[in-house]
Amino acid sequence: MVTKGEHAMTRIALVGQGYMARTHAAAYAALGLGERIAYVCTPRPGAPIEGAPRARFVTDLATVLSDPDVGVLSVCTPTPTHADIAVAALGAGKHVLLEKPIALTPDDAARIAKASSTATGTLMVAQVVRFFPGYEQVHATVEAGTIGTPVSVRAKRLSNRPDWAQWWADESQSGGVLVDFAIHDFDQLNLLLGQPVSVYSVRRDEFGPIETSVRYASGAVGQVLSHCSLPAGAPFTSAIEVLGTEGSVEYTLLAGSATEGDAGSALPGTNVVRTVTADRRFDTDVPDDDPYTRQIDYFLRCIAGGVAPERSSVPSAILALDVARAARESVRSEQKVVLSPEDFVPPESDASTRRVDG
Ligand SMILES: NC(=O)c1ccc[n+]([C@@H]2O[C@H](COP(=O)([O-])OP(=O)(O)OC[C@H]3O[C@@H](n4cnc5c(N)ncnc54)[C@H](O)[C@@H]3O)[C@@H](O)[C@H]2O)c1
Fold first, then answer.
1. What is the pLDDT of residue 213?
2. Residue 20: CB within 6 Å of ligand 1?
3. Whose CA is nearest to atom 6 of ligand 1?
4. Domain 131-289 adopts which CATH fold?
5. Which of 46, 189, 227, 350 has the fewest CB atoms nearer than 10 Å to its CB?
6. Which CATH class is domain 4-126?
7. What's the whole-model pTM score?
8. Which of 138, 131, 136 lies closest to 294, judged by CA?
9. Torsion angle of the four alpha carbons 163, 164, 167, 168, in this order, in degrees rounded to the nearest 10
10. Tell me: the pLDDT tens digits for 64-114?
């Protein structure tokens, strides 16, 4: 974990003051950095944010960007605003942690990527599922070769409807369930299976269930179940199962529901990774560490080390968006959507030669 001293000179600004801004504030506070949050930038300033006791509320981004003491921005605003805010912040030399999805459109995503490629600051897209300890253990198992070559990934994400954000239910603002919500799972499939080549998606209704199949260049297949209509009180569920040539590894997180404010915290007795091979079957307990805190800790350590955040790279965020948009197009057209090979940027392409381990 990063220590307060390592970032003693850096001040932080939250852009937005909704659900994710509060989540980021809590994560900075957990790292001992809550008092470093100097600004909350939002069009309609509201109640103080817990974890950010010294934050000054401002309505214009220019105030934040012109403050030389501010080094880091957490951008936690509705997705259509991401590109303008991220490009301005990177242009002002700031480090940017940008909530997922990177953007709604390929053009906006490309604008962000271009700004990042010439910026002095670091950009990381907050694909937080990469920082869930259970998912990390699944990856470590695959990386270790325990289950051989991965040939199938099934992922599942079930939630209540996020009714705290009015804009969310409007697909033109959020991208809908496939772009806003399932993007975490498409990112996981890409991470484990490589280059996606085609996408086919069917749904019962716009909030789910939606079933998406993704074919990969290697011949591997992915399947994602997305559903945002769980009954009130039902646990948030996030799951992944990887089948390899020599075995399988699976993880299911059952957590408090997002609408009750405790999403991410595992229900007792459910937090294990299960690995099965021909000669071994074992469960591994997963620590109930907050993934948002782990994500910010990693981001700050990348900044401190002057290295690219390869664990959550910009090309991988764009590729996840490509698959999510293809899934949405498939739902509409009821056809398989073929992805063009030029969409694929190998994950190592933006990796630094130096590395920050998780
Ligand atoms: N990683 C995750 O687990 C996760 C979960 C939920 C949402 N998200 C993402 O986080 C982002 C924000 O979602 P949310 O649920 O916090 O939404 P929200 O509606 O709760 O909060 C959005 C905030 O942004 C403010 N805002 C709007 N336009 C702005 C602008 N131009 N400048 C500054 N502030 C502005 C709003 O007033 C509000 O305070 C979205 O991109 C969403 O997809 C990520």
1. 98
2. yes
3. 20
4. Dihydrodipicolinate Reductase; domain 2 (3.30.360)
5. 46
6. alpha beta
7. 0.93
8. 131
9. -50
10. 999 999 999 999 999 999 999 999 999 999 999 999 999 999 999 999 999
